[in-house]
Design goal:
This protein is an alpha/beta fold. The chain has two domains: 97 residues, Elongation Factor Tu (Ef-tu), domain 3 (Beta Barrel); 149 residues, Nucleotide-binding domain of ferredoxin-NADP reductase (FNR) module (Rossmann fold, 3-Layer(aba) Sandwich), CATH 3.40.50. The protein is built from five helices and 15 strands. The chain is globular and about 50 Å long. The two termini are 32 Å apart.
Amino acid sequence: MIQENATILWNTRLNSDCFGIGIDCRKGYSDARPGQFVSLYLSDRFDPLLRRPFSIHRLIIENNRVAGIELLYKVIGKCTKRLSDLRPGEGVNILGPLGNWFTINDKARRIVMIAGGIGVAPMVFLARFLRDHRPDSSQISLFLGGRSKEDLLCIDDFLTLGIRTETSTDDGSAGHKGLVTDLFEKTAAAEQPDLICACGPVPMLKSVARIAERKKIPCQISIETLMACGIGVCLGCATRQKGIPEKYLHACIDGPVFDTGLIGLIG
């Protein structure tokens, strides 16, 4: 974990309210793993006061070395609006890499990634990691959902990596019309995976967890929550441990990736 003042390389609009931002930070990120996050502070603006967490979307590689990271974010509040105003050459204070990551054992061959909206952010990193560390990526697939076609981000990234990709939208403007979890469940009935990795809105994650429990499929989810410190000090990202009401886990140090059998938020 390293805190540093880093430089913005690019800040590109991807649709009406989503951006990809490249950050020149070279220290410590060669060991980053899919599912980990960074905590940003807009140090020259002081508003908002607290740091904000963002999943690592991908590593920036130059001359076979990690030269920085890219984040994917959606403008939904004051911090992300200010972040969207940053230009190449401006600075941001970054703390990371933080948290744990998706853990894939060697026995898991048929791996399914499920992402909803901006929850696709860590999945690009995961897909590339799997492709680089597995001799055969043909059994890795992605189910990507959004409200409309505009919300389906990064499809070309997965196709370039040879990842089978299926999409769904609430309004039917692309792919299956309906929920991405319904699309996945139909497919899983015929071809059950060895592992599910998911990130997205809480209702989607709850549905994924129920399917996984019903079909007895190991499942890991990356939860999205506010974190003020990112290092377990403020205790603001607490979530109940499943089956132990008085026991809490914290997304910043125990997560943000959890087995669905562990946390009470999902069930």
